[in-house]
Amino acid sequence: MKKQLKNIVKFTDDYTNEDRIILRDHLAMERTKLANERTLLSYLRSSLYLLLGGIGLVGIREKLFEDLKIVGYIAIGLSVVFLVVGIVRFIQLKRHLRNFK
């Protein structure tokens, strides 16, 4: 049983049992790392959608939709904000997890 457990633990980064954290806590931290990466990808996806929508609205040439260019510029600005916020939150949580070990 212990040998099987050791094989499972090898799939995670670098678990060494130094009595600082138990296996359950280590696995919870691994899940948190994966969730952090997933959240970063969600921010990136949202940022790209806003960028594409903004470019599409800015590129409209008809006079009827001329006022939508403002919305397009706002969407492009928000896409940059989403990207920066996502990266900052990712780095903060990554540092926090590194310091926790």
TrEMBL record:
It is a multi-pass membrane protein. Residues 31-95 form the DUF202 domain. Coiled coil: none annotated. The keyword Transmembrane helix applies. The chain crosses the membrane at residues 40-58, 70-91. Signal peptide: none annotated. It is found in: Endomembrane system. It comes from the Bacteria. Keywords: Membrane, Transmembrane, Transmembrane helix. Its main location: membrane. This is DUF202 domain-containing protein. It comes from Psychroflexus longus.
